[in-house]
Amino acid sequence: MFRHPWAPYAFIAPAFIGLFVFRFIPIGLSGFGSFFSENLRGDMVFVGLKNYAELMDDPSFWNTMRVTLIFNLIINPFQICCALALAMLVRRPSKFIDVFRLGFIMPMTVSIALTSIIWSILLDPTLGPVNGLLRWGGFQSQPFFRSEHQALETLILVATWKGAGYWMIFLLSGLLAIPREIDDSALIDGATGIRKFISITLPLMKRPLAFVLVADTAANFLLFAPVYIITNGGPNGATQLLMFEAYQAAFAYINHGRSMAISTIILGVVLLIAMFELRLFIPAEEEQS
Amino acid sequence: MSNRLSEGLRYTLLVIIAVILLTPIYWLVMSSLRPADHIFRFSGNFSIETLIPFAFTLDNYSQALQSNVGRALFNSLFVSLTTVICGVFVNSLAGFAFAVFDFRFKKLLFVLILLSFMMPFESIVIPLYTLMRTIGWTDTYAALIMPEVAGGLIIFLFYQFFRGIPREIYEAARMDGANWWQIYYKMTMPLSGPTIATASLMIFIHQWDAFFWPLVATSSERLAVIQVAIARNMTMEQANWGAFFASASLAVLVAMVPFFWLQRHYVKIVITNADR
């Protein structure tokens, strides 16, 4: 390592100015703004914890929290199982495996906004090809996003369609890092199939799995575009996720204090998730240096 | 025998999953090539024509490009490429400092960087909008570009790579009287081709994908990026379906270009980073 009186600070300055202005100031603004409310004349007045108290008293906010929680409890394990299954399937090099690897990450090229629009058309009750296929196969057509009882599940499937390949990349890298000898010695010991997977592969995948779990949770916790584009939180609040609630408070109801309070809650949760993630990274750093 | 059976099963699963993941993209592109009145004619009742269009046209594309979509594609490309150039420069500088120097508060600053990349950008969108309104940046290109330039993930990526460069070559360069800026742009950066490519791809895809922030930060038609323009065209009454499928296909195809181009780099480097 080198020392220099000012060069390191000059090198990091542009990035840190950027991070400070566009990350840390907004975080501060959010916490600060959540203690203020706009009065009838449009002035900001200090109201203490009133915005939070109002949220706590608001049944629709509790519905949002409930939906967000259920959504995350289902989608994160589900997405990771799918991603792990994909990674296991394309792990061993064989014919055409590069084609499948590339094919599985192709949904990444469809932006989250386009994913939402395309799937809302595909799943349309009358015009959608998916229901066309169901009817052709002799099944009943399904309402998908139009039904209170199917909308959240459908949202989870659509988000997984886009996300599974992305998280597969990280898990595949973990699998490929497992030394060959471990696999071979397992075979000699007679461990095959599911037993080998549970007793040998999974323990070695602890770190990549933990990383993906935390990063995936942070991403899904902030899901916005499909709710905004397809369901608008409906039917009957079934897909009212927290990020959409924050958006509505800020831009539909123009309730500044409320939107800042929700943002602060979101930031608090995300920060908590980030702390977990950090714990996964720091030991690795120390081992190496 | 059982080996061949399990290989057969594996390939069957691979093909089924590939079909599920790729059919929507295939259907999107095929629909964009159908005459406007054919797009939904075969979708509700399944037949071979649902999958393979019998009548082809490029009308949808010429219509899309004549509408606001042409401008929106330009906006997206401009915003994404500018962010790539600025982002590679700013973040590689910071990564260089962390990899090469020892300085006060280094540990603390590094933790801040890690923390910033673990907090997804979406989490600060609403307070960031308040900030932009205060400094009068709403509805500008700067609002779309500047917040995305400095990024913890990209700094980390460069840091990882720069750390692997042996310090002897820096010592030799210092002996020859080179200053640190010259070392950075004459020695380190030219060695970093694959890392620069990966960083560029990651920044580009992230910006090309962006929806929530551009939706909030820009309200005028003039500055709409492609994702926002398509979504707005959809919510207007009587959406032009032909133009929608054409513009969505264009948006996906542009995003595919760097993927096919840099796929090997990307997967390889993400892979070496992920298991740290």
How would you explain this protein's 3D organization?
The complex is a heterodimer of chains A (289) and B (276). Chain A has 289 residues and is mainly α. Chain A is built from 13 helices and 2 strands. A two-stranded antiparallel ribbon of chain A has the order 1-2. The longest helix of chain A has 33 residues. Chain A is globular, with a radius of gyration of 23 Å. Chain B has 14 helices and no strands. The C terminus of chain B is likely disordered. Chain B folds into 2 domains: 57 residues; 213 residues, MetI-like (MetI-like fold, Orthogonal Bundle). The longest helix of chain B is centred in the last third of the chain and has 34 residues. At the A-B interface, helix 1, helix 4, helix 5, helix 6 and helix 7 of A face helix 1, helix 4, helix 5, helix 6 and helix 9 of B.
Task: Looking at this protein, list some descriptive labels.
heterodimer; A: 289 residues; mainly alpha; MetI-like fold; two-stranded antiparallel ribbon; 13 helices; 2% strand; B: 276 residues; 2 domains; 14 helices; globular; disordered C terminus
Number of helices of chain B: 14
Low-confidence stretches of chain A: none
Quick one: which chains have the greatest interface?
A-B, 99 and 91 residues
Task: Estimate the global geometry of chain B from the Cα principal axes.
Answer: globular
Query: Multimeric state of these chains?
Result: heterodimer
Structural category of chain B is mainly alpha
Average of pLDDT of chain B: 86
For this structure, the CATH topology of the largest domain in chain B is MetI-like fold
Radius of gyration of chain A: 23 Å
Q: How many distinct beta strands of chain B?
A: 0
Order of helices and strands of chain A: HEEHHHHHHHHHHHH
Number of domains of chain B: 2
Shape label of chain A = globular
Helix content of chain B: over 70%
Class computed from helices, strands and strand pairing of chain A:
mainly alpha
Supply the CATH architecture of chain A: Orthogonal Bundle
